[in-house]
Write a structure and sequence with these properties.
Glutaredoxin; 2 domains; 52% helix; 6 strands; four-stranded mixed β-sheet; 248 residues; single chain; Glutathione S-transferase Yfyf (Class Pi), Chain A, domain 2; alpha+beta; globular; two-stranded antiparallel ribbon; 9 helices
Length: 248
């Protein structure tokens, strides 16, 4: 009765790189719920939805269906769920005797935090795309992933220049935005947003950090810079939660 977590394949077998699927993996590992990962090529994501008769998780601006991961299938209930927040809420409700992702019923507060943090992180997406295409995407996934991202971001791959003045400004803006979030973390008495208590908000933050590490590499200057910012708040958070990123 093991849960299946559908995750995105990469050139390096067994490497989890997507921040969205990483949030679900963090939840499953933190709660200690048995699961297995099924790796999916980008063109096969729609097939996961069709296999489980699952409607598209969202839609593009033009109204066309948007199929995304994570998706989980829970054979103990027969449920198939998409979207990392919806999955977290499902796990919280279905497995109430495991550690809480939303302590003290705080989902109503933590969901908006996720929206805010992702908004603060959007400037980094164009800087990651060239590395994802070069270091992550398989030959099967790349021809679908690249036009998908171009459609999503409204720009062609030729415009993704990580060394341009625009990119430097996006990097500066991201660092500035992280300082806002770091101030909230500094108001607590522990490494987490709720002090000594791990919660969804921490998974949201660290999942994006884990994506940076996977895409840029642990020895890259970009990764070393990010984990050193804000008096090491992010490096400490990664260290505290890294044990929940194990791939099963």
């Amino acid at each position: 009765m093991t849960i299946t977590l559908y995750d995105l394949v990469s050139l390096t077998p067994g490497i989890a790189w997507s921040s969205n699927t990483q949030k679900t993996r963090l939840c499953l590992n933190f709660k200690g719920i048995p699961y297995r990962t099924e790796w999916v090529e980008w063109p096969d994501i729609k097939g996961v939805y069709e296999k489980h008769s699952l409607p598209a998780s969202s839609r593009f601006h033009d109204g066309s269906p948007k199929y995304t991961l994570p998706v989980i299938y829970d054979p103990s209930t027969g449920a198939t769920i998409s979207d990392s927040l919806a999955i977290a809420e499902y796990l919280e409700k279905t497995y109430p005797d495991t550690p809480k992702i939303f302590p003290h019923g705080t989902v109503g507060l933590q969901a908006p935090f996720e929206d805010m943090y992702i908004e603060h992180s959007k400037s980094m997406v164009p800087l990651l795309i060239p590395n994802i295409c070069r270091n992550i995407m398989t030959p099967t996934s790349l021809p679908v992933y690249q036009p998908y991202m171009e459609k999503l971001l409204g720009m062609k791959m030729a415009d993704f220049d990580a060394k341009s003045e625009v990119a430097v400004e996006k990097w500066r803006k991201y660092k500035e935005n992280l300082e806002v979030v770091a101030r909230w973390y500094r108001k607590t008495d522990g490494p987490f947003l709720m002090g000594d208590t791990i919660s969804w908000a921490d998974f949201v933050v660290v999942s994006i950090m884990m994506m940076f590490r996977a895409v840029w590499g642990e020895d890259s200057q970009e990764w070393k810079d990010v984990v050193s910012w804000n008096e090491g708040v992010w490096g400490n958070l990664v260290e505290e939660l890294d044990r929940y990123t194990t791939v099963f």
